Amino acid sequence: MTSPDTRLEIEVWSDVLCPWCYIGDARLEAAIKDSPHADRIDVRIRTFQLDPDFPATPTPVVDYLSAKKGLPVEQAEQMEAQVAELARAEGLAYAPNHPVQNTLDLLRLVHLGNEHGVGWQYMTAMQAALFGGEDGAFAHDTLVRLGTGIGIPESEIRDVLATDRYADAVRAEHQEAIALGARGVPFTVLGRRIGIPGAVPTEAYGQAIVQAWEHVDA
Description:
The protein has helices at 19-34, 61-69, 73-89, 104-115, 119-131, 140-148, 154-162, 167-179, 202-213; strands at residues 8-14, 41-47, 59-60, 99-100, 187-190, 194-197. It is an alpha+beta fold.
């Protein structure tokens, strides 16, 4: 029998521009809300930069996919349409051909968010802005607005954006995920016992929570 003070930590490796992370994070959140242990589950967002060489200028996602994967534009558009349909099925906004760019600055800010206990909220706010088609989703003023909206001091956000603070932490968490068996994101680890690669259905996250909870005090 678990103690009333028992808590389960769920770690989620994610990148802001990953649509499967956007969908997976929403499904995981729904599974947590459905759990009878919801008030004793802590989510810690961790970072995994999918493309460190991505340029720092916005590029329409269809153009990016076409060039990155060597696909005809029409096929890239079909891929995005399929992802958009899945996202909307989860109640998520998904703008067609939203811009993407290098996410190092955003992921560094997620680490700042973790220092304030709101890294998960910061990540999901960034995802909502990006995939929702918000103009300037990568702009510093947008990132400041999203961060201050969840309680992070503006001065600290701007300090991170003006320096390379947390860059080493982003790289370290990427390597940690690889060591744990991740080959992409989302990658979810429950209680350091159960690893889930990819975005699985809400029910599968729920089953993993049940399984992980059984071992919390083991």
